[in-house]
Amino acid sequence: MRRIAKLMVQLAELADPDHDPRRIPLSQTRLGQVLGMSRSLVADLVGQLREEGVLSVDRTLTVARFDRLRRHAYPTRV
């Protein structure tokens, strides 16, 4: 979970000013390729993030709660 959350946070932080930083510009397949994970594992992790309310429940990967996403990405930070 930590690796995918960290990548999503980094993508948001590096987003072009004209791009909505809440929208993750990669497909689940591409996220898997970047992270060296299977698409099915990425789908499971995305499902967990959606159930927790971190990602919105629509077709696109959109961050609903950056605070929760950051907690997954950096669990030891206060």
Which helices and strands, and how do they pair?
Blueprint: H1 2-13, H2 28-35, H3 39-51, H4 66-73
Helix pairs in contact: 1-4, 2-3
Q: Could you walk me through the main structural features you see in this protein, from its secondary elements to its overall organization?
A:
This protein is mostly helical and 78 residues long. 53% of the residues lie in helices and 0% in strands. It has four helices and no strands. The chain has helices at residues 2-13, 28-35, 39-51, 66-73. α1 (2-13) crosses α4 and α2 packs across α3. The longest helix has 13 residues, at 39-51. The radius of gyration is 12 Å and the shape is globular. The two termini are 18 Å apart. The model has no long low-confidence stretch (mean pLDDT 93).
List keywords for this structure.
globular, single chain, 53% helix, 4 helices, mainly alpha, 0% strand, 78 residues
Quick overview:
This protein is mainly alpha-helical and 78 residues long. It has helices spanning 2-13, 28-35, 39-51, 66-73.
